[in-house]
Amino acid sequence: MYGLKDGKADVIARKYINDIRKEIFRKSIHLCSALIPSLLLWSKAAVLWTLCAVLILYCIAEWLRIKGHSVFVVSKITETAARARDGDRFVLGPVTLALGILCTAFFFELPAAAIGIYALAFGDGLASLSGKLFGMIILPCSAGKTVMGSLTCFTAIFISSWAVSGNSFASLMIAIAGTVIELIPLKDIDNLLIPFILAFAASFCFGI
Q1: Which residues have C-beta within 8 Å of that of residue 74, sequence separation ≥ 6?
Q2: Of the residues 26, 82, 134, 202, which has the fewest C-beta atoms closer than 10 A?
């Protein structure tokens, strides 16, 4: 009897560790997008064209993976980062991530674009990881989002926005808006909404 219980606990522990490893890997990709604002200072055109090329390459590689053909490196990264809900379907997360950054960088100038991209990189990127590692209180009607995850999201967006703008009130409003968007169970669509809406708020609502 005890052996069965111990075996079940061991399976649960291994699954939890595997989920955390996947989340760390996935969110490390999110965090890498924090490099984009610095690259935009160097060459906006080069960044936009590179993002387009990466997006097209990923879509082709993912289509081939679904058809049973592995593409060197790209397919392995997708398989490592894919969540249980993705199954054998097209993994949309990298597409929405790239499109969110691409649209934000295209339509907004720095520093507004930087605020939106940093919110995606740090706010959304750290919220899920923090929630899985330390989240104990689940927020109602949020598809499993936690208080700790939301607090991490708010703090990360506020600090990064303030570091760019130096405007405490604007950063507070942007952080609240970003946290609310992240709370809505939109799956991967928040990768599109968070950077674009927050960059819009920074540019047109607060003149940043």
Answers
A1: 57, 58, 61, 62
A2: 134
